[in-house]
Design brief:
The structure is a homodimer. The first copy, chain A, has ten helices and no strands. By secondary structure, the first copy, chain A, is mainly α. Chain A is elongated and about 60 Å long. The first copy, chain A, binds a DNA duplex (18 and 18 nucleotides) through helix 3.
DNA sequence: GTCTATAGCAGGATAGAC
DNA sequence: GTCTATCCTGCTATAGAC
């Protein structure tokens, strides 16, 4: 995200900068004075382009967050379609890796989840957008994929199962802070690999399936 | 928490009120003007008793959050000690119910998790206090309880397993908002029972153990 | 101990020059 | 389209009367 180059146009620079700052410090702690200073443009530009701070915030979701979430989804689907056969294991693994080793840079993952986490605790219109445009459809698609292999459970149970898998993935991705505090381990690349394995295994067992042994 | 009665003393009223308001709207959105108005005391009282807004916030954690978390822990232990034999199932179930059907009123659960969720995304000194005083010891205790039944895995795996169980419990407790949006169901008592069953089952399977059938 | 009044600052928004 | 200057509101914190 260090692409706030001056050749990008004020509008884009504002979106880039605002996203980084909002993620880092939260909506309230960031002033439009901060944003315009970092974006190297004038204070009034925010009002000119986005009709105010709130408008800028929503446009960050419209133009960055939603497309980025779609990239995770596309990555997942490409993976699924490349498999000969979709089993519970391939689905869960593809999902975990789409988040943890997917199309997003580490920096983007960080930003994305910080903003999402903030929305969960301070819900605004942006959360509704994410739920409607990305989360709900994605959950539905994953549920449909798993349906054939989990015949014995109800639709409602299936939904809760899928949510649980997402919960684990999200928790281990965005909860790095307390997790690091409790485990005493930094999120190095190596540790992230370990977490991917852990989440995949735990989810698979959780779904009631046995995972085939697989060299890590 | 509607116990902000005038006979409680200004100090206690301020702690009660501040907790409710901070949980509902977040530290930044709540002014000491709001707090003192609701607590029916003077604006200057916050500075007099707590040396400022931040001091009040930290004292909410010291005097409400930490003791409350300890109550969950105590509830869990009482339950464990009443069992003839501690199995993985009894531990997981006791843990889930301590959070979801435990010693806290629904209102307290709400407040507690909102404040914790806010700390996770906006970490302050309060999070360190919670981790050191409550979370880390509790995780260690649960790990020790499970150790005998999960001999085959390393300490590190065990820790991740325990964190995963907590992750599910916390997600389904504090993540009610997006979950309701996705499932389209309100968190009624009946639905909460269902969630307890789901979390317990998913965790047990996740830990690699088979759950005995049990009438729901 | 409790209150009023106010200092002192920072923020969002906007009017209007260029 | 871009910028400066400014308005207005709201905040925390404190000084000092009672």
């Amino acid at each position: 995200m260090k692409t706030d180059r001056l050749d990008k146009g004020v509008r884009e620079r504002l979106l880039d900068t605002a996203e980084v700052l909002f993620a880092a410090d939260g909506y309230d702690h960031v002033s439009i004075r901060d944003i315009t200073r970092y974006a190297q443009c004038n204070l009034a530009a925010v009002n000119y382009y986005f009709k105010g701070k709130q408008g800028l915030y929503l446009d960050v979701f419209r133009h960055h967050m939603i497309p980025r979430a779609r990239r995770i989804r596309d990555f997942f689907w490409k993976r699924i379609k490349s498999e000969k056969k979709t089993t519970v294991e391939t689905v869960v693994r593809a999902l975990t890796e789409a988040y943890m080793h997917g199309p997003l840079s580490q920096e983007e993952v960080e930003i994305h989840h910080k903003l999402m986490a903030r929305e969960l605790t301070n819900p605004t219109k942006a959360l509704d957008m994410m739920v409607e445009d990305v989360i709900r459809p994605f959950v539905a698609e994953v549920s449909a994929l798993l349906r054939p292999d989990l015949k014995s459970i109800s639709d409602e149970e299936l939904l809760l199962d899928v949510i649980s898998v997402f919960a684990l993935i999200l928790y281990f991705t965005f909860g790095r802070l307390p997790i690091s505090k409790v485990t005493g381990r930094e999120y190095t690349d190596k540790y992230r690999d370990k977490l991917v394995e852990h989440v995949t295994r735990f989810s698979l067992y959780g779904l009631g399936c046995n995972i085939k042994d697989k060299e890590t």
